Amino acid sequence: MPRRPPCKGLTVQLRMAVTDSVTPQSQAYQQTKGNMEDHSNGKTEYTSLHEVSYPPGHEGRLSSELAATPSRKPAKEYPFTLDPFQQEAIRCLESGESVLVSAHTSAGKTVIAEYAIALSLRDNQRVIYTSPIKALSNQKFRELSEEFSDVGLMTGDVTISENASCLVMTTEILRSMQYRGSEVMREVAWIIFDEVHYMRDRERGVVWEESIVMAPKNSRFVFLSATVPNAREFTDWVAKVHQQPCHIVYTDFRPTPLQHYVFPSGGDGLYLVVDEKGTFREENFHKAINAVTAGYEKRNRATNPKRKRDYENSENSDIFKLVKMIMLRQFDPVIVFSFSKRDCESLAMQMAKLDLNNEDEKSLVDGVFSNAMDSLSEDDKKLPQVGHLLPLLKRGIGVHHSGLLPILKEVIEILFQEGLIKCLFATETFSIGLNMPAKTVVFTNVRKFDGDKFRWITSGEYIQMSGRAGRRGLDDRGICILMLDEKLEPAVAKSMVKGLPDPLNSAFHLSYNMLLNQMRCEESDPEALLRKSFYQFQCDRALPQLQDKVLCLEKEWEDKKIEDEDNVKNYYSLLEQSRKLHHEVQNIVFSPQHCLPFLQPGRLARVIISGMHENEELFLKSEEPSVWGVLVNFEKVKGSSLASMDESVKGLAIEAGHMIDILSNCAISSERNKDETVRPVPLDETGEPIVASLPLSRIESLSAIRINLAKDLRSLDAREATLNKVREILRRFPDGLPMLDPEDDMQVDSSSYKKAMRRLERIENLIETQSLKSLPNLEDRLRSYHEKEELKQLIKAARQDVRAATNLVFKDELKYRTRVLRRLGYATNDDVVELKGKVACEISSADELVLSELIFKGLLKDASTEQMVSLLSCFVWQEKVKSEKNLSEDLATLYSQLRETARRIGKVQQECKLSVDVEDYANSFRPDIMEMVFAWAKGAKFSEIMKLGNVFEGSLIRAMKRLEEVLQQLISAARSIGEQELEEKFQAGSALIKRDIVFAASLYL
């Protein structure tokens, strides 16, 4: 790994200043400023903030005392001038105190980690270096091994020199060592947490919190993080939990400034929207947006799918033009980010006519690739992925995503580092941890699917990926290019490219494995862990603000005086009752049993406009705003329909059981993507004639009039002509269209309908007789009373927030989960871990309850080793794929028993008041790769098993590695309960899958 060279012409002047700002738990320490004279930008202001958090009751030292710490020879010296923030962090380390270094990518955080390791080795102490992913651990092991001699590696897959003084490992391994009471933990002086902002990860973030809370009391920490706006909050938490000072050295200085451009889809040029000084250029942005609209129309002129395909794969495609432009302007190397594995590959294929390497470089690529592939068998060398990639790589074009074979990913990383790949198409994961900057970064899209919906990428995600642009010491600036094919509001764009990083918020959650391990440890206690969690700390810290919010709302409520309030209250109450009764009547009349016979195509219908409930005038009306449209179709809601439905209508659709397709004038959101929203609007407003799907409950009334519909409404002209007919009919009936009468026409004769109508008539008569009705300022008084009622609801919610923050978070969930463990026999009423619990304690990479139940049910013992391994694949496979073939009878029986066990456990959790959907829980165990894993365990070649399913090679290998990890945990579990036969069976299963390309050694090792 090449070292960072000193920046030429760089001079640093340091000015110290001690500030007086002190908070109960933290003290501002000092601020460092200096002028950096850069050969590209002249003078730029460098700011490094240095603060220190102290635990409660701890008297902080002044900066002069820290500076007066006896100095020894530096543990490590560098051939370049250290930046001010690096100097400050190293002073903290030399004083033996923990530090969080928060800085942009490529700012030089690794220098501090290396110094902490050198310090430990100098003082004959042990140090642990943790990283979020195995690939990064492997890469760090390689780098550190070149720098230091006494380095080991522990990732679950590989263990090298486990007794070394410096151990590189994943955070999960560290957590496991802590629970096991490993001897190593007693000797550790420093723990380095790389990429600690990963703690906010929804699934794995909790591991960081557990590891930090359970770390030995005599250890010190080095936290390396991207810039986070609430870094001070994090260090305050560490100081409180470990009763030791924790420094924060924060800098938002970028060694290489960035320029941000927009490339409009279908356009020919770049528009500079944010310059290297961070100025947002509004005029340029609007020009780019106008070019996007023009490009969108241009692309849609090609209605023939074949012509569109030819366009995308030709030299006219946007990505081809952009990459070619980048190469001509010498902005390479470039990383092109896409949020889809398949898109990465298809975009790379569009570069077919680009050749970015000369003959010498091609020869080097061929040599590196051939040497790497020598470790594979002859059959594996013939895999399609291996064969398809080499021609691309030789032309200087690469692809990097989780679906690639791990060995290919590593080859690509090495080639990219050596400058032999000029254009790399990568997914977001390439921006996490791997230190591989480029001159230019391109975003093919600024929207991503986050597992629930499509959304704009956050400013934090943008900062993380754009941070790869600009190589320190090589580039005078980094280039970021956003490819836009949809409208982006200036406010959204500005917040994306100039916004703050994502805050470091806790993703703490309880698991059964955590609870059982806490019960089993002598000095541990689940409640104590909850109290010390960052989640609890953030809740406690928010308490004063929540209490102030309640006081402010209460004062606002008291200050809102309304003339003749009691009478206004009564009148308001009548209006509310009237509105609710209207709803009740509507729900009865337009229930499927009454209205389905009248939902013929062509019938005119009024539908309630969605999203109008917030209208401040609505409480004055008994009916909600509605618009006219033409019924096209109706259908019963099915599961597949719900999957793609907008969240705002999904609940209503489920309740109603039917959806209607209605042609109406609609406003459509500017996002031309899968989650675009369509909302009916009045016929005289600007909109488009669109057939929208709405829940049946949105029908307000049905007209007696039907019109003839065109046979095909797919063309815009046909839809527009139909709406013009509706406009003409409305013009002919100025007093209103003839409507279907609920009783006479629709035969609604239920007792609930009659009762609701009688109550509605009584309420409306009372409203008519109200003396207040004629007052000229009644509307203002009602509006004020409505605001006062809303304030009352806000006060109620704020008080609930205060109560929740006062109590221990997760207290109820802890009680419910403990109840589950007792019901299933994992722990006694005195929280003593039983035999089943000992097994679940060892399982952290899969569902510990279901897996433990299968063991004690005898299912894993009775199945053959190959079948057992195949069944375990259901615990590690998470991607959704379409299975192309049914399971064999034996595997289907095993899978059925697994689902039955999952349902039983799901029901127990439900009965213990946990929010669990039993069917969703059972469906989370996916059988998609069972046949593939079974064939692999039987000895099939990798090329043969890839024909059994439509999955990426890399995704399957990652699942196999996770499967082997689970098997290792099951070996430990069987050993812990003295099940030798089962232990041997798990070992045999591990041996069956651990072979060939699936477990090929990392090139970094």
TrEMBL record:
GO biological process: maturation of 5.8S rRNA; RNA catabolic process
Coiled coil: 753-808
Domain Helicase C-terminal residues, every copy: 318-520
Region feature Disordered, mapped onto this chain: 18-43
Organism: Ceratopteris richardii (Triangle waterfern)
Cleavable signal peptide: none
GO molecular function: ATP binding; hydrolase activity; RNA binding; RNA helicase activity
Domain of life: Eukaryota
SUPFAM superfamilies linked: P-loop containing nucleoside triphosphate hydrolases (SSF52540)
Full protein name: DExH-box ATP-dependent RNA helicase DExH9
GO cellular component: nucleus
